[in-house]
Amino acid sequence: MPAHVKGDKVESSIQRPSAAPLTERQEARRRRILHASARLASRGGFDAVQMREVAESSQVALGTLYRYFPSKVHLLVATMQDQLERMHGTLRKKPPAGDTPAERVAETLMRAFRALQREPHLADAMVRALTFADRSVSPEVDHVSRQTTAIILDAMGLADPTPEQLSAVRVIEHTWHSALITWLSGRASIAQVRIDIETVCRLIDVTEPGAVTEPGARE
To answer: What is the pLDDT at residue 22?
Structure first.
């Protein structure tokens, strides 16, 4: 059934590619789409990413683009996942040098932040897409969250975190995302972002197995 394109959304019975592994050709096509999305967003932010232009730039049919990404929000959230995967690869080649897990995570997140800072229009587009995402974008949002968690756990040096440590990681993720929003809106400086990140990363210390609880704290 042909797609009915309306703005940056598609109304059709076309199904997105299943969870089955992509073929080499499909993966190459998907990568071209993500590269085109990032390139356009880097130039002009969220509004610069138009699905028809993404299709033309990545040399795929518009209907094919919508089969991969049903809307601009789906596309930009997937673009954020791709950017985080690239950052993760870079971080693995040059791991953080802090003495404690909290210091290493703070350094890692600030390095990721500085990478986004170099492409403010792209960062703004991706964060806006995450903010606009509804339930239909849950798989893509979950991928972003899992990638961020993996980056933090790598910095901590953990392969088997406790429930308390995973809870701390989630709070750190929320703070990092909030810090991005406040910085992009001009309501926080880089120095303030660093203070917030370093502060929240101290949660890692108190969730370490065997951590000493402050006197007078509740049991």
So the answer is: 80
